Amino acid sequence: MIQKSKEFLAIEKVFKNLQKEIIQAFSLIDQKSHLNQTQWKYKYGGGGKSCEISDGHIIEKGMVNYSSIEGKVLPNSALAKKNKGSIKNFFATGVSVVIHPCNPYVPCSHLNVRYFETDKKDKWWFGGGYDLTPYFVFKDDIKLWHDNTKKTCNKYNKKFYSDFSKQCDEYFYIKHRNEKRGVGGIFYDNLNEKDKVFYKSFSQDVASTYLDSYLTIMKRRNKKKYSKSHKEFQQIRRGRYVEFNLLYDRGTIFGLQSGGRPESILMSMPPNVMWKTHLDSKTQEFENKLKKFLR
Q1: Residues near 235 by Cβ (< 8 Å), separated by ≥ 6?
Q2: How confident is the model over 67-126, as pLDDT tens digits?
Q3: CA atoms within 13 A on the CB side of 155
Q4: Beta carbons within 8 Å of 213's beta carbon, 6+ residues apart
Q5: 5 CB-contact burial (10 Å; exposed 0-12 / middle 13-18 / buried 19+)
Q6: Does domain 6-294 have CATH number 3.40.1500.10?
């Protein structure tokens, strides 16, 4: 088995600290929430820490997970086409975040940053991104989300925002529904043209920008009054989130294909979900407005 490089150890440390910072930030904004943290070991080597956030007055359920694992066969879900069939031993580390808020006016959000290193010296890469999934649209929230994202991307490369936001829209697309999952963000993979320090710094800034933007939106919307119809619509739209994660999400597929801990992999699922074939008039109105905006 290959040994972890000095760069991998440094990135691993950064990601560990990111998890702590994100947990602390969500704990501060929602002091009534409960944290359930679990250390776990991966059967082939390494492991991680999973943190479930639940039963808060702002966060209904969330996860902030860190992992650093190693293995001998890298699942196809983690490979670019150019690398397929050429990689055996690998290390992978990353942080994943998903937040399902109580208030339907607060969007669901997702963040992931990850790094892969293999037995081939030139075969390493960074990936990640984040997206926002509102149920009720506020244009100033979406403007904040994308403006902050663009500002961060431009610090590193003027093409990053246009390229990565396009990739986000293409990736977070529910094919069988013919609709976007949300209002986008950024998604990137297989970054390795520059050095590892460059992408490590970019990953840190991506996580910080996600957190700053999302906490601002949370504070704006979490006290807004809502009805039973609003809550029901939130649960119906959460069903789309489940469908995407189980059918298309590469992180979920990679975790399951690599023999990861199911409780950690599926921790991203919302606490309450609803599927309905026929919507009442009020819920249909919400659905029409959201779909019109997403189109």
Answers
A1: 270, 272, 273, 274
A2: 999 988 666 655 554 455 566 788 999 999 999 999 999 999 999 999 999 888 888 999
A3: 14
A4: 144, 145, 148, 149
A5: middle
A6: yes
- Which residues 6+ apart lie within 8 Å of 177 measured at CB? 240, 243
Cβ-based neighbours of 93, under 8 Å, separated by 6 or more: 8, 11, 12, 15, 66, 67, 68, 69, 114, 115
Q: How many CA atoms lie within 13 A of 208 on its CB side?
A: 11
Half-sphere exposure of 228 (CA within 13 A, CB side): 1
Position 233 confidence tier, pLDDT thresholds 50, 70, 90? very high
Cα–Cα dist 51/230, whole Å: 28
* Sequence ranges of the domains in the chain: 6-294
Spatial contact of 146 and 184, defined as CB atoms under 8 Å apart: yes
Q: Half-sphere exposure (CA, 13 Å, Cβ side) for 226?
A: 20
Tell me the catalytic residues.
110
